[in-house]
Design brief:
single chain; alpha+beta; Molybdenum Cofactor Biosythetic Enzyme, Chain A; Molybdopterin biosynthesis moea protein, domain 2; Molybdopterin biosynthesis moeA protein, domain 3; 6-stranded mixed beta sheet; binds adenosine monophosphate; binds magnesium ion
Length: 425
Amino acid sequence: MTTSLSQLIANPSCMDDYDPNSMPVTKAREYIRQFLTPVRDTETVALRQSLGRILAQDILSPANVPNYDNSAMDGYAFNADDLTGQLPLHLKVVGSAFAGKAFSGNLASGECIRIMTGGMLPAQTNTVVIQEKVKVLDDVIELTDMPKRGANVRYAGEDLAIGQIVLTKGHLMQAADLGLIASLGIANVNVYRPLKVAFFSTGDELVSVDQPLQSGQVYDSNRYTLFGMLTRLGVELIDLGAIPDQPEVLEQVLLNAARQADAIITSGGVSVGEADYMKQLLEKHGQVLFWKIGMKPGRPLAYGKVGNAHYFGLPGNPVAVMVTFYQFVREALMRLMGQHDVPTLPLFTVPCASPIKKLTGRTEFQRGIVFTDTDGALKVKTTGPQGSAILSSMSLANCFIVLDEQVGNIEVGSLVQVQMLNGFT
Ligand code: AMP
Ligand code: MG
């Protein structure tokens, strides 16, 4: 697939398998993926500030980690090649090595030193016996087992060898990575600049949380779920508010968003209703594909570009916003942020503890709870009613139950696929 957005818009039939009115979830993901252009600008930040950011450089190990052979346990270090004769064997303790305080003398045959975890092994030694395994008789230890040569030793370069690539460009920095880079003595790293994401809600019925609600109005909740999901991703937010279905106002806000942001996310107004001015505006100012995705919830979806900004037009229903965000937008934004090897949310299989009614021909993302059953096995049940406006189902859920197109009704005990949401929702 190497069609451009404009080709696809001008001539949808140029692609054999392209049907905007019946777009499978995986196809939609593939189409979006091929049009994404990640940020290129980089900045250098202090190591701690790189948490959640994407590396713009490979990190090479400037030294061996650990830097010297050292003991993995508290015990006694000696040269195993020296040990001859019958058990029990006796070794004279002639000094000690602590973490950060090496033994400076020389060891002769038949001698050992007291050594603590992290203590440097003297050059003449190669093995550590743990303290629990020896008998101490004044300045002599007695070994009753023959230790294995090299036991309890952590070797120089065992974790990382000098010059080795430790983390690659495009890596998402997590807690372990901060420690790993610190272990190399590196204080600053080069990362991609944060992605700027503008978002707004559309709809005449929307009211902000600090206003009284008149009949026929709803509070704008989508901007809050989007705020949460985007904040978790670590992007820079530009919240442009709740915008009424007025073409002039929407146009102004859309163009303003396109000027400032790398990506724009809107909710509502992309289905083909009477007040769907967004569609006309997007056709006028952008190159946007309008899809009906074979999924529930989240059927209408728009993707394309407005100016240089990537545009994601999500449905208005609160659950559909979250489902489409997790299935399409999250992954796309991670790619735009410069991350390599972005996985879709991983799937695994568990038995289902509740029956589910399901039509074939579309992918359903039911809200589920993975739990440990009384028999100790992991199972999943649904959160209850699955309407696309029932946002409490997302609060209750710890996973999506992903029912592919070909899957029909689910009976109790059947295996289903789940996608865990912990850390994402
Ligand atoms: P739409 O896609 O604009 O037709 O909206 C579909 C449904 O989602 C309607 O019931 C809207 O009232 C509701 N909706 C749209 N936007 C929001 C929002 N920001 N917060 C809560 N509900 C919304
Ligand atoms: Mg609307």
